[in-house]
Design a protein that fits this description.
binds zinc ion; 16 strands; 3 domains; Rossmann fold; alpha/beta; four-stranded parallel beta sheet; 475 residues; Isoleucyl-tRNA Synthetase, Domain 1
Length: 475
């Protein structure tokens, strides 16, 4: 089976075929760096990572572009409040974004273009849209004329009748021909100058709207038409619809052939996690609460299919941590085992079957949860076989290959857990303090907690040492 992906544009699961043999061009909407990314954003970013890894596993070379939105109303407000420029204001959040991506082991994109560094591309595209009658100027602003693009709504399958109010909307803020027309360029406000958020353009000094940045930067790095455009489902309308309108009107060619959207992540209360709504959870919050970033990674990509809603609860994160631990322990056991002389042929047949089923699940619109479910069944069987010394060299190699294949997507089995050493050292210090204070109950609780996490403590004359213990049985 070849890779099939659910294309929002066609509304169906279609076999994937790139424009160029062996190469995939992929644009995904990145973070607005006005604050830390919330976990809902991270779900979309890890979905891009999973997609990219699957394409690479299928043998494609991938050019992945992910933009950084470093200008928008929230950034302007915050920079104003902080008395700095937008470039200065976003710096720590750009760094934090890359840190988050590293701790979640997302593969780096090939390009991370920043909006403020691509203003000339946007100005050129807006110029083309004005020339061709797809855009108009109104009091220093420039708007896209939705009426001029009959295919508007093709992605979200909108009923256009509701989008065609002929009346002119004039408020103190807008002078648009139609309510649904959207801004390509906003006239500079005197404050924008202080914030470093105003640029010259033939149609007047100002700053770009949000949507035009993706159209302009996608064209710069991937050309007029490319293979895949991805984003969270909340971006489908209007953002992606607007990107299509701008790009296709300006370039006269289709933008992306396949559009992929990942679903929302809900907070425990069932409410959509959105930073505009105020309180939102970041990776930092989860790590501070004791969660391992790799458990967060596993939870976000392997707990539910990317097109299903997912609910963030600490129980679910703990369950993911346990699953990651089981996989790591299993991988370590297979690495270390001495192959027996016996070879369980039935097990070897099962490994081959699971491997094929895993590949099939991933090729079926990236169904990682289903693939991983199969692997966990096999882990149980293979552990039992190792307990009984029924795994020989052939079986060991087959298991090692399967682990390698699965970890190409999951990437949770190799290396030490990031931050583990510091976390363990912190708990050890806490335990020492409890012992000095003769709080032996607390000290024992900490030892027990570490044991639960697979860490054994050894009191020695040189102080306390720790090591990872692998539970060989009872999976
Ligand atoms: Zn975008």
């Amino acid at each position: 089976m070849t890779l099939e992906l659910h294309n929002t544009l066609t509304g169906s699961k279609d076999p994937f075929e790139p424009l160029q043999d062996g190469h995939v061009g992929m644009y995904t909407c990145g973070p607005t760096v006005w604050n830390y990314a919330h976990v809902g954003n991270l779900r979309a970013f890890l979905f891009y990572d999973l997609l990219r890894r699957q394409l690479q596993a299928d043998g494609y070379r991938v050019t992945h572009v992910m933009n950084l939105t470093d200008i928008d109303d929230r950034i302007l407000d915050q920079a104003m409040h902080a008395g700095t420029t937008i470039v200065e204001y976003v710096k720590p959040y750009v760094e934090a974004f890359f840190e988050d991506m590293r701790s979640l082991r997302a593969l780096p994109a090939d390009h991370y273009p920043k909006a403020t560094e691509h203003i000339p591309d946007m100005v050129a595209m807006i110029g083309t849209l004005l020339e061709r009658g797809f855009a108009y100027e109104a009091d220093g602003d420039v708007y896209f004329r939705i009426e001029s693009f009959p295919r508007y709504g093709m992605l979200s399958h909108l009923d256009r009748s509701g989008l065609r109010p002929g009346m002119r909307v004039a408020t103190d803020k807008y002078d648009k021909e139609s309510v649904s027309d959207f801004a390509l360029w906003k006239k500079a406000h005197p404050d924008d100058e202080k914030l470093g958020a105003a640029w010259d353009a033939p149609f007047g000094r100002g700053r770009p709207g949000w949507h035009i940045e993706c159209s302009a930067m996608a064209k710069r790095y991937l050309g007029d038409t490319f293979d895949i455009h991805g984003g969270g489902v909340d971006l489908m309308f209007p953002h992606h619809e607007n990107e299509i309108a701008q790009s296709e009107a300006a370039n006269g060619k289709p933008l992306a052939r396949v559009w992929l959207h990942s679903e929302h992540l809900a907070e425990a209360g069932g409410e959509k996690m959105s930073k505009s709504a105020g309180g939102f959870t970041t990776l930092r919050d989860l790590v501070a609460a004791g969660h391992d970033p790799l458990a967060v990674r596993f939870f976000l990509i392997a707990n539910a299919h990317y097109r299903s809603r997912l609910r963030l609860t600490s129980e679910a994160l703990h369950a993911s941590a346990e699953q990651v631990r089981r996989l790591r322990d299993f991988a370590a056991r297979v690495r270390r085992m001495d192959p027996g002389t016996q070879e369980d042929q039935e097990l070897i047949g099962r490994i081959a079957k699971v491997r094929a089923a895993y590949k099939e699940a991933l090729d079926d619109d990236l169904n990682l949860p289903q693939g991983v479910g199969q692997v966990f069944e096999l882990v149980r069987e293979a552990n039992a076989a190792m307990d009984d010394s029924r795994v020989g060299e052939h079986g060991r190699r087959a298991l090692a290959e399967l682990i390698e294949e699965v970890d190409r997507h999951l990437d949770v089995m190799g290396g030490e857990e990031p931050g583990l050493a510091e976390e363990v050292e912190r708990l050890i210090a806490e335990r020492e303090a409890a012992r000095s204070a003769k709080d032996f109950i607390r000290a024992d609780l900490i030892r027990e907690e570490l044991k639960q996490r697979g860490i054994a403590l050894e009191d020695s004359r040189d102080g306390v040492r720790w090591r990872r213990v692998t539970r060989e049985r009872g999976m």
